[in-house]
Amino acid sequence: MARDQKAKAKMEQAKGKVKEATGRAVGDESTAAEGRTKKSKGDLRQAKEKVKDAFRE
Question: How many beta carbons lie within 10 A of that of residue 29, not counting itself?
Fold first, then answer.
């Protein structure tokens, strides 16, 4: 289960980076902001999984 969540976090971070870069490239600030939000969500999910791992050990 943890691997699935970690994979989701990585995927969310990657999608966010791509969306942010695309938004910046075309000059669409709302798309870039959505990308930053998605990337942040992935970062938070990854941090949560790291905390859970620390308590398991």
Answer: 9
- Asked whether the whole model's pTM tops 0.90, one would answer no
Tell whether the model's pLDDT for residue 1 goes beyond 70: no
Lookup: tokens for 37: 């939000």
pLDDT in tens, 7-40: 999 999 999 999 999 999 999 999 999 999 999 9
Residues 36 and 20 sit within 8 Å (Cβ to Cβ): yes
The radius of gyration of the chain from alpha carbons, rounded to an integer in Å, stands at 13
Write the DSSP symbol of residue 27. T
* Ordered alpha helix ranges (H), 1-28: 2-26
Closest to 39 in 3D by CA, of 11, 8, 12:
12
